[in-house]
């Protein structure tokens, strides 16, 4: 950068970086950091050579202004109704629909910007507001479901709503709904039913584009008769990601192909190129065609839902076209930075949106790394080098975000992307758009592109599903440490600098590759928790699921919770992807720990709330063996045992007195059941773990008779008791507590469960015995870590 006429040439690229530093600092630091930053900047300006002072002062000012802007934006998005939501109070609101209405079965969800509200219908205009809330509308009939799908953004609603606070994550590294809504500018949620809502349609530009998007979706449904292919094409062509079949979406996510279904630079480049080609074919001059294409891109971004990736692509594409119009040339990093700054000025909270992060990070990676990558293996044809460079650059950057947010990165992701992405980009995407356009002329003209797209997708999905089922190692990654994130980011940032300095000889490239491999190894955290036993009592609602990790050697899974599923009364009420605790709670936790093999599954007994979640896990992991109680299995237990047998997993049981060791100082004992007449809850498997001289007793759902047998067989005192049967009054009798004298008791129960667990009587007994009590309904997941030096506890939710 050089001084120009007494001023300075500010790099947009560097300005965007320091702007992000200012926003992130304000999000996590005390406002006093602004004073510290100002003081440090003043000191630097006073000390450094004169030619650099203006640059330091300028970029420091941008950082501080970005921080002040964040505080101002945050202040504008505070909540007036949050105190009422804490009391779950009912209010009347008038507001504007601020997002597409998404219906799933008998529930519709969308954002509403409240314009006025009151505690009663008569004074609903008492308080003026511009607060956004997440609204959930319950539907009572197919007619209501059909009607609510016609509601559009911009329409006005008046309704009584029940306020509540969004739930925070109740398990380690789980999806945090409260945090997600916070970065959407939402602090509270509301619920109402359809009949109580008065909706007034209001014309808006976004509503018109949504109408056209819905019209396009219906046209795609008519063209592609296979529902799975139709849903896929609606996502690929129109950005309707919620239309993709859940199993197909999961496969794309597991193999690192989800980006294909998001509107990105690929879509913008292809659509704009096709549109430009059509304009030139009908005789429009090139410069005018560029201008018309820019206007077309604006409409296209609105049509596909204006996601972060679509807006970013549209902005960068439009700038590129403007450069063509005026004959200018801009650096790709500056175009990227301009789009970033503009979007963050509109909404700085976007910096915490996963889609925004991935879109901008991967695009920057392509801009920076592809040119350097093309200079490697120069004898290889340029199209192959380009394909490999784009794939590896995207994988290199996205790796950090995927393991942080999703704990998932397939070892064959780079190869799958290298092969599949070009095929889908060259066939499915263009042929899909061509089919839709030709359908406007005459449906018969769309037959061939529809057939080609459908055949290709079915052909390519078969091997992809087969690869997904292979259970490849190094697919699930433990949640990365903050130091790893920082060092890996610095590593990526230093690479282009070193290349420019001349460090790109063969030995330099080999050293870089070795360092990259070391980062991959470090991401697996091979030395983490080597000499510890980590026991996590997961919050699975009204049920049990306990994960025991013995150093880095063994993993035990005791039960996996379960979700009671009721068939929908009518077809329209069916959920696309209903909540299931094994799939939505236990699986994400195991992934976040980087667990890929479960050495022993303990099915304590056959109740749904203990073993129902296992069905969803069997296809995702390899297993050593399964321990059961040895009694006649329930229908559900028999089905799950059969699934394990189909996978070749041995099914075993035990007898009182049997023991085994998982290393020095770590011993398990089978205490119950034995060869007896116990059944049901009293036949629960009871195990005792002794680790580094600390004892933990796992009791399943055992009740009074079973506890009596345990005491008769000879129990000793324990350090930790997993309270039986969720704290039911039929368990944890005084005799058991007197013998075991647990220092800490853990109760697994659902929030506000219908059984009233844990019972007040059991809590009184535990208090009387001197036990400290942890409860999943109060504390969320509870983690016990035992080391040779002692033990410590971690609760997901602090006890207030």
TrEMBL record:
The record, for Pfam families, names: Competence, DUF4131, Lactamase_B
Which reactions appear under catalytic activity for this entry? 3',5'-cyclic CMP + H2O = CMP + H(+); 3',5'-cyclic UMP + H2O = UMP + H(+)
- Carries keyword Zinc? no
* Top-rank taxon, per record: Bacteria
Gene Ontology biological process terms, A to Z: establishment of competence for transformation
Give membrane topology per the record: Multi-pass membrane protein
What keywords would UniProt list here? Cell membrane, Membrane, Transmembrane, Transmembrane helix
The record's GO CC annotations read: plasma membrane
Q: Which residues cross the membrane?
A: 7-25, 31-48, 55-73, 255-276, 288-311, 351-370, 382-406, 412-436, 443-462, 482-502, 509-527
- What SUPFAM superfamilies does UniProt report for this protein, alphabetically? Metallo-hydrolase/oxidoreductase
CDD domains with a match to the protein in the record = ComA-like_MBL-fold
Q: Where is the Metallo-beta-lactamase domain?
A: 542-751
What InterPro entries does the record tag this protein with?
ComA-like_MBL, ComEC_N, Competence_ComEC/Rec2, Competence_DNA_uptake, DUF4131, Metallo-B-lactamas, RibonucZ/Hydroxyglut_hydro
The subcellular localization recorded is:
Cell membrane
Quote the function comment for this protein.
Counteracts the endogenous Pycsar antiviral defense system. Phosphodiesterase that enables metal-dependent hydrolysis of host cyclic nucleotide Pycsar defense signals such as cCMP and cUMP.
Q: How is this protein named in the record?
A: DNA internalization-related competence protein ComEC/Rec2
């Amino acid at each position: 950068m050089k001084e120009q006429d007494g001023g300075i040439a500010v790099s947009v690229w560097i300005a965007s970086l320091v702007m992000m530093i200012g926003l992130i600092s304000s999000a996590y630091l005390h406002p006093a950091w602004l004073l510290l930053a100002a003081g440090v900047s003043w000191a630097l300006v006073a000390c450094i050579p004169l030619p650099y002072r203006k640059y330091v002062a300028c970029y420091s000012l941008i950082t501080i202004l970005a921080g002040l802007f964040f505080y101002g934006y945050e202040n504008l998005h505070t909540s007036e109704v949050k105190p009422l939501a804490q009391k779950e109070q009912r209010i009347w609101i008038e507001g504007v629909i601020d997002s597409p209405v998404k219906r799933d079965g008998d529930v519709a969800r969308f954002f509403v910007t409240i314009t006025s509200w009151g505690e009663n219908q008569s004074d609903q205009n008492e308080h003026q507001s511009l607060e956004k809330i997440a609204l959930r509308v319950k539907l009572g009939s197919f007619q209501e479901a059909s009607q609510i799908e016609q509601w559009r953004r911009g329409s006005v609603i008046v309704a009584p709503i029940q306020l509540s606070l969004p739930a925070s994550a109740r398990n380690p590294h789980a999806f945090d709904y409260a945090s997600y809504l916070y970065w959407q500018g939402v602090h509270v949620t509301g619920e109402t039913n359809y009949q109580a809502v008065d909706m007034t349609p209001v014309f808006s530009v976004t509503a018109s584009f949504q109408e056209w998007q819905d019209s396009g979706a219906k046209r795609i449904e008519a063209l592609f008769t296979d529902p799975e292919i139709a849903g896929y094409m609606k996502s690929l062509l129109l950005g309707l990601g919620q239309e993709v079949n859940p199993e197909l979406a999961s496969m794309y996510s597991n193999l690192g192909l989800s980006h294909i279904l998001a509107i990105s630079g690929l879509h913008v480049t292809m659509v704009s190129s096709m549109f430009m080609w059509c304009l030139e074919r009908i005789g429009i001059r090139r410069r005018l065609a560029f201008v018309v294409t820019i206007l077309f891109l604006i409409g296209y971004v609105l049509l596909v839902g204006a996601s972060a990736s679509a807006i970013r692509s549209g902005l960068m594409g439009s700038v590129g076209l403007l450069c063509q119009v005026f004959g200018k040339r801009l650096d790709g990093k500056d175009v990227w930075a301009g789009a970033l700054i503009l979007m963050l000025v509109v909404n700085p909270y976007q910096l915490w949106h996963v889609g925004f992060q991935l879109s901008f990070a991967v695009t920057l990676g392509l801009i920076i790394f592809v040119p350097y990558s093309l200079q490697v293996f120069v004898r290889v044809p340029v199209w192959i080098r380009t394909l490999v460079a784009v794939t590896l650059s995207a994988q290199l950057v996205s790796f950090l975000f995927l393991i942080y947010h999703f704990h998932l990165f397939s070892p064959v992701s780079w190869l799958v992307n290298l092969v599949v992405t070009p095929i889908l980009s060259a066939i499915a995407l263009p042929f899909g758009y061509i089919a839709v356009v030709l359908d406007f002329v005459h449906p018969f003209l769309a037959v061939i592109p529809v057939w080609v797209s459908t055949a290709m997708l079915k052909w390519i999905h078969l091997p992809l599903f087969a690869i997904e089922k292979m259970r490849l190692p190094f697919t699930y990654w433990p949640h990365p440490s903050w130091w790893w994130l920082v060092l890996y980011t610095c590593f990526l940032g230093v690479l282009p600098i070193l290349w420019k300095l001349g460090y790109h000889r063969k030995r330099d490239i080999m050293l870089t590759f070795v360092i990259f491999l070391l980062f991959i190894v470090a991401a697996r955290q091979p030395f983490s928790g080597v000499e510890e036993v980590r026991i996590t009592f997961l919050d699975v609602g009204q049920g049990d699921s306990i994960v025991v990790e013995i150093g880095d050697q063994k993993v035990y899974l005791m039960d996996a919770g379960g979700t009671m599923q009721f068939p929908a009364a009518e077809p329209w009420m069916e959920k696309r992807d209903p909540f299931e605790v094994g799939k939505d709670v236990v699986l994400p936790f195991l992934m976040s720990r980087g667990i890929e093999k479960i050495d022993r599954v303990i099915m304590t007994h056959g109740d749904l709330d203990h073993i129902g979640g296992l069905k969803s896990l069997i296809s995702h992991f390899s297993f050593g063996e399964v321990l059961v109680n040895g009694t006649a299995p329930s229908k559900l237990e028999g089905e799950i045992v059969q699934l394990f047998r189909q996978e070749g997993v041995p099914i075993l049981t035990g007898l009182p007195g049997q023991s085994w060791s998982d290393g020095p100082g770590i011993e398990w004992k089978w205490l119950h059941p034995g060869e007896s007449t116990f059944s049901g809850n009293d036949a629960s498997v009871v195990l005792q773990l002794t680790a580094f001289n600390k004892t933990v007793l796992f009791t399943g759902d055992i009740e009074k008779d079973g506890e009596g047998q345990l005491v008769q067989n000879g129990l000793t005192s324990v350090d930790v008791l997993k309270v039986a049967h969720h704290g039911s009054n039929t368990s944890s009798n005084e005799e058991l507590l007197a013998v075991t004298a647990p220092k800490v008791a853990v109760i697994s129960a659902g929030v506000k469960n219908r059984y009233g667990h844990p019972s007040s009587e059991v809590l009184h007994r535990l208090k009387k015995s001197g036990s400290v009590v942890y409860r999943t309904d109060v504390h969320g997941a509870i983690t016990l870590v035992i080391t040779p030096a002692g033990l410590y506890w971690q609760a997901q939710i602090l006890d207030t």
